[in-house]
Write a structure and sequence with these properties.
Oligomer: single chain
CATH topology of the domain at 96-122 and 230-409: Rossmann fold
Shape: globular
Bound molecules: pyridoxal-5'-phosphate
Helix content: 25-40%
Radius of gyration: 22 Å
Distance between the termini: 63 Å
Length: 445
């Protein structure tokens, strides 16, 4: 046992607390969501400098499990888990991409993209899933009767769950909305031998089913309403700050659907702030697709009320969610971090991703939403060009080939594909090829 302590605590402040190895997702007294709460007093026994040095000393190591970007911060995540029971692929530690040419188009020279999609299953969902599956593995090893882990998913959660469960040898069940996810996302859990259920409904419908199924406590719920996921995801904030030599960025922009991740981002910054590693907080911008924008609508009325919607189809399929489970956590975070919520249309998100790709990215549609929102807020001068700004890229573009191909073939609905680049079909005639190249050089000037 380490000297630190973390428990599940009710977010509504009703005082309920449960151990992290209890099968519980909502407060048994008032029904609100739970969050992992760390004993900050105990963590303060180490100074900010000692924490920074400890975390820095673990970066790049192969010492189990600290080579992981998540478990290198173990004391701040799940301090009391047995290292031998951790299920990790040394996830995290993703690079910051200096968006030099893209930023220059908007007069920004301190714009960065955190490449969370450069990860085992191609999205940032790996960061939270290593934590959740580790805790489940620890429970199973200590004799708890858990038959399987289960989730509803818009694609990326299921891929991450299936991979980590397969690594640990734990059965997994995934509920996916039929025909609403990409081929790459569907095939990942199939390959990892998950039980894949394709349901004739949308994500919100799958979420209702998994909540029913997991009322049987031997099937463990792996969605982000389970706040163990949030503990892994929050290390993004810590890692980004560490990558800038513990200098906090000014603005962070993240796409949101079920809205767990925006609060995770806030939690990471808050913990560093409370423990003195940073002395100010960044501004957080939550980016939504216009076709699935319930939080944007709530923001527009000053968060006075929140109404779930039926989302329309969006290319940003991983955030096509109308009834976000973690909305209250998200609103709390945005209020604390001087938050902005902005939306992007299908045309805006697809063109933003394509424009960024011309400067070397390979952006998924969700990253496109965040980039489009950045462009709008800079144009409206709601964000400053001078600020150090980080866009969270949540998935790898390679998971969304239909989106990429559709864009460049000009077949995406509601999108004027202004940067489409098609292959030039021609005979292997060197003279004609030279002429064609001259035309292309001129066009690209
Ligand atoms: C899950 C996911 C998001 C949104 O995260 P939430 O916590 O649901 O708001 C954004 N982009 C991608 C690629 C995702 O998989």
């Amino acid at each position: 046992m380490s000297e630190y302590r973390a428990v599940f605590r009710c977010i509504a402040g009703c005082g309920e607390e449960y151990p992290l190895d209890e099968v519980v997702y909502e407060c048994r007294k008032c029904g609100n969501l739970l969050e992992v709460s760390h004993d900050i007093g105990l963590l303060k026994r180490r100074s900010a400098r000692e924490w920074r040095e400890l975390f820095d000393s673990r970066t790049g190591t192969t010492e189990w499990p600290y080579g992981s970007g998540i478990w290198s911060k173990k004391e701040w995540v799940v301090p009391n888990i047995d290292n031998d029971n951790i299920v990790s692929m040394f996830e995290g530690n993703t690079n910051l991409f200096w968006a030099k040419r893209f930023g220059a188009m908007y007069g920004m020279d301190d714009l960065w993209i955190k490449m969370c999609g450069n990860s085992h299953t191609g999205s940032f969902k790996d960061l939270g899933m290593t934590v959740l599956v580790s805790v489940v593995n620890d429970m199973i090893r200590r004799g708890r009767n858990i038959k399987a882990v289960a989730c509803a998913s818009t694609g990326d959660t299921s891929a991450a769950l299936a991979a980590f469960a397969a690594y640990a040898g734990i059965p997994s069940i995934v509920f996916l909305p039929a025909n609403k996810i990409s081929t790459a996302q569907l095939v990942q859990p199939m390959a990892n031998n998950a039980i894949v259920l394709s349901l004739d409904t949308d994500f919100d419908g799958c979420m209702r089913v998994v909540r029913e199924i997991t009322k049987d406590n031997t099937i463990y719920l792996a969605n982000s309403m389970n706040s163990l996921r949030i503990e892994g995801q929050k290390t993004i904030s810590i890692e980004m700050t560490q990558q800038f030599n513990w200098e906090v960025p000014d603005v962070v922009i993240i796409p949101g659907g079920n809205l767990g991740n925006v609060s995770a981002l806030g939690n990471g910054f808050k913990m560093m702030y409370d423990l003195g590693l940073i002395t100010r907080k960044p501004r957080i911008v939550l980016a939504q697709a216009e076709n699935a924008n319930p939080l944007y609508l709530s923001y527009k009325n000053g968060f006075r009320d929140f109404t779930p919607i039926t989302p329309q189809k969006t290319l940003a399929s991983a955030i096509q969610i109308g009834d976000p489970v973690s909305v209250q956590k998200a609103i709390r975070t945005l209020k604390e971090f001087d938050g902005i919520v902005e939306q992007a249309s299908e045309d805006e998100l697809a063109n933003a991703a394509a424009l960024a790709d011309r400067t070397g990215t390979y952006s998924c549609p969700h990253t496109g939403v965040a980039l489009a929102v950045l462009m709008k807020l800079i144009d409206r001068q709601e964000l400053s060009k001078k600020d150090r700004t980080i866009v969270i890229s949540t998935a790898h573009g390679l998971k969304f080939s239909e989106f990429k191909v559709g864009y460049h073939e000009g077949t995406l609905k509601d999108v004027d594909c202004r940067y489409a680049n098609r292959p030039i079909a021609m005979a292997p005639d060197v003279g004609k090829i030279k002429e064609a190249l001259e035309r292309e050089f001129a066009a690209r000037k």
